[in-house]
Task: inverse folding
């Protein structure tokens, strides 16, 4: 037995292209095990590309991973080049969403939205054939890191379908929280099967939230987080996480956000702003971790507050490693 990242041996992420990854496709630099429209799941899961990925992990060589953004899920496991069906499935192909976040993926036009929708439909049409055997053997399903579960009729039906296939399955939900209400959660059968809930809020105040989230509803989010907090208190929810992407717009509210998470019995999850596709102008405006940004040293000072070392907070290594920059009079 050895302590190693479990994802290549136990997990998959399904993208709308049909590509199968062992975890976040960005973190593995788009290293795909294969495509479900070209091969069977068995051929993909224990195919040559999957074996090569696992082989490097067994050697403790993480050349396919972006270690600067990944927080590896280390466990004591017996690694091998082949593996039984994955225990964890992340469906990340349904891009329906009810909001537009300033730092998130946004379709540029109707043609691009239609292109993505056609890819999603192809997954939907093949869902039963490809994933029923996998779901039967799974323990945990995560929805929906690509869009908003509760804004999609398809994803809501998928929840019901998964429960019908495997009534003992547990769910992790990634959501913006606006529609994550008690009524909807009970209606689709999630409440007694929730294991984790990750809610992206990114602000402690409504005014700031509205600058970051177009078409959002801060009051609804807070009410629904309180509902999830009650589920956690009574043992129906193992993990409640509140996400906060640090930008120049919200960084001054980090302490207040941490205090709110603590009150809710949740973890405040702070990560640095990072996107794959940005204009230099947008990056320079939003990325307060740039040493050239006027708010950089203020951010570094905020991060020294003791609350960020408490159990209620997770601060990723990139933010932890920020050091103050001292400039001479002539540099300003």
Result:
């Amino acid at each position: 037995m050895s302590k190693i990242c479990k994802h290549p041996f136990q997990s998959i992420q399904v993208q709308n292209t049909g590509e199968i990854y062992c975890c976040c496709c960005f973190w593995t630099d788009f290293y795909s095990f294969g495509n479900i429209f070209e091969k069977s799941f068995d051929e993909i899961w224990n195919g040559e590309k999957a074996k090569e990925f696992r082989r490097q992990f067994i050697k403790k060589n993480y050349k396919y991973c972006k270690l600067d953004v990944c927080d590896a899920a280390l466990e004591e496991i017996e690694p091998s080049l082949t593996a039984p069906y994955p225990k964890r499935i992340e469906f990340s192909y349904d891009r329906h969403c009810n909001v537009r976040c300033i730092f998130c993926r946004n379709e540029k036009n109707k043609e691009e939205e239609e292109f993505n929708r056609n890819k999603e439909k192809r997954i939907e049409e093949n869902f039963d054939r490809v994933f029923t055997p996998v779901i039967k053997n799974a323990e945990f399903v995560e929805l929906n890191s690509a869009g908003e579960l509760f804004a999609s009729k398809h994803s809501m039906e998928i929840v019901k379908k998964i429960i019908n296939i495997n009534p003992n399955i547990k769910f992790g939900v990634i959501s913006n929280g606006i529609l994550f209400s008690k009524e909807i959660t009970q209606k689709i059968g999630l409440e007694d099967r929730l294991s984790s809930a990750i809610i992206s809020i990114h602000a402690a105040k409504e005014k700031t939230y509205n600058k970051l989230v177009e078409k959002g509803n801060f009051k609804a989010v807070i009410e629904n987080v309180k509902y999830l907090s009650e589920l956690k208190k009574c043992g129906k929810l193992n993990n409640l996480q509140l996400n906060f992407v640090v930008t120049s717009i919200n960084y001054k509210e980090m302490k207040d956000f941490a205090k709110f998470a603590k009150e809710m019995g949740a973890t405040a999850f702070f990560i640095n702003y990072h996107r794959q596709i940005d204009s230099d102008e947008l990056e320079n405006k939003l990325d307060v971790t740039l040493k050239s940004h006027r708010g950089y040293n203020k951010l570094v000072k905020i991060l020294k507050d003791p609350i960020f070392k408490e159990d209620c907070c997770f601060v990723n290594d990139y933010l932890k490693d920020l050091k103050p920059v001292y400039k001479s009079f002539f540099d300003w």
Notes: The chain has a mean pLDDT of 90.
